[in-house]
Amino acid sequence: MQLFTPDLQRWLDLAGIFVFAISGALLAVRKNFDVIGIAVLAFATGLGGGIFRDLVIGAVPPAAFRDLGYFLTPLLTSVLVIFLHPQVERINRAVQIFDAAGLGFFCVVGTIKAHEYGLGSFAAAALGVATAAGGGVVRDVLANEVPLLLRWDREIYAVPAMVGAGSVALLLHYDAFGDLTMALCVLLAFGLRLAALHYGWRAPRAWHRRSATAEGDGGRER
Amino acid sequence: MQLFTPDLQRWLDLAGIFVFAISGALLAVRKNFDVIGIAVLAFATGLGGGIFRDLVIGAVPPAAFRDLGYFLTPLLTSVLVIFLHPQVERINRAVQIFDAAGLGFFCVVGTIKAHEYGLGSFAAAALGVATAAGGGVVRDVLANEVPLLLRWDREIYAVPAMVGAGSVALLLHYDAFGDLTMALCVLLAFGLRLAALHYGWRAPRAWHRRSATAEGDGGRER
Amino acid sequence: MQLFTPDLQRWLDLAGIFVFAISGALLAVRKNFDVIGIAVLAFATGLGGGIFRDLVIGAVPPAAFRDLGYFLTPLLTSVLVIFLHPQVERINRAVQIFDAAGLGFFCVVGTIKAHEYGLGSFAAAALGVATAAGGGVVRDVLANEVPLLLRWDREIYAVPAMVGAGSVALLLHYDAFGDLTMALCVLLAFGLRLAALHYGWRAPRAWHRRSATAEGDGGRER
């Protein structure tokens, strides 16, 4: 099954890797890493989620090591950010919108690929979320930061991916998938992420925790 | 070969994942992460060690992605901790005892599974230890903490797992395994960990290091 | 294809693991970890790069779990460093030279192994670099430090590996490999790393970044 034509899908794939790689390269610039560090974070962020998914489902070598485009995209992204990072920072809003699009696209194709390799609905959806959000976790771990995904003071990132991947898993389970329904799942995750950014939606913390922080706890946090 | 009946083994497996997931979810609450962060750490701690073992021995997709119970256990654990974390913290002693049981159980089943996939005695025992202790390392790395496993100021955790996994490897090597001897290995690791907790056993540091720290070094440590 | 006789290659392999494991064990001593932490970092640094490569190309179980020598080398290194770390620190210069030799050797054998498993030139070279530099990244992530590989204030480490791995990939592509050319690739990476250490070569940072740091930025850096 194909969400889109193979050609279109590949271009969307590369576009998603591109925007993820930008977020990795920009973090490396902010952390004052050298050009090697910028390239490493661009690769890890752009390809990390997909490599994890492919290792888990046994699709080795992962797609990232078989298609030259997957390799050149983070490389070119690094070069771009190395020379133009002030300009890229300035269009950060646009980058976030593309990142939301990448999130929507990757949670859907990740779920589909895991399903094609025989995983059940829940496992496929979980891997879809890992495909979309995993690169960012690898990026933050390498940069020695608490992953944004885990922090309460950021707009929700995993929830849109979960909704998108979960919808795909449901559609696959009921044999109701098709080009249109799949595209709707991408748009659903994309739209939710945009809305979260626009309205500042955050996930709640543990029960009883809200009052505690008002009193200034979080001492173990950096 | 089976340590216990498949049904009993599965329940022990899920119980082990449950207590490991609790330790992940509680750390997330202490670090003030949101509910997504709590769930991510519960999954990573409960399933991380087993996923690593399965990737290394080539058992893909890992068990965690094939059995729905493996998926639902950390999910339910997260919900439990989100609403009842003060109560769970209060029975922390009980949690530690269950965690010790999980340690004993996982180091044994991890070694057996690796052996079944054809690994040698040393490699199988090493993977048994990784199964038991790996989830905690993933938890601490994701939470941006120095892994407890590496710290000198904590009761030994890896040593009981090494003794348990090593005993299993020896028994397998001499064809002397069976339900009884295997259960004894679980109890051995479990008992050692409990004794370590009770008597405050710690692993030594490098030679000449004790005096050095008395003079207040460790400046690079956080 | 063989770079050297199998026997010689295995000894070089073990020598490389030995020097990488030393760097892991020494970091653990400096961070005041206990003997378990020292052994864990020795294993992770010595074997991490090769395990990652083998998982990606589907060579499971990884070599590190099949050859007892790969297992005993980091173990013996740990024991050595635990008792003799002041002496090992004192010959740090010699350790760095051996580490450079390990870097040269691993980037070449990593590229060759990936090529043998059917990867393209770029992917094989990338895995060669990951084999050589991956262990150090795992070491720093586990020790909760910013990976040295990413930092601008260290002599280049990845670049010599890239040059070595890239040369191998080129030679393989043009069917021009052989014992002599391969040995030259090892020497090339080795020599570049030694020169980088001797002359203090560093990789540049992002454009416009030099002046910024002169004004004392890098506030987000630790």
TrEMBL record, chains A, B, C:
The chain crosses the membrane at residues 12-29, 36-56, 68-85, 121-142, 180-201. InterPro entries: Gly_transporter (IPR005115). One of its GO terms (cellular component) is plasma membrane. Residues 11-85, 97-171 form the Glycine transporter domain. It is found in: Cell membrane. It is a multi-pass membrane protein. Belongs to the UPF0126 family. This is Uncharacterized membrane protein YeiH.
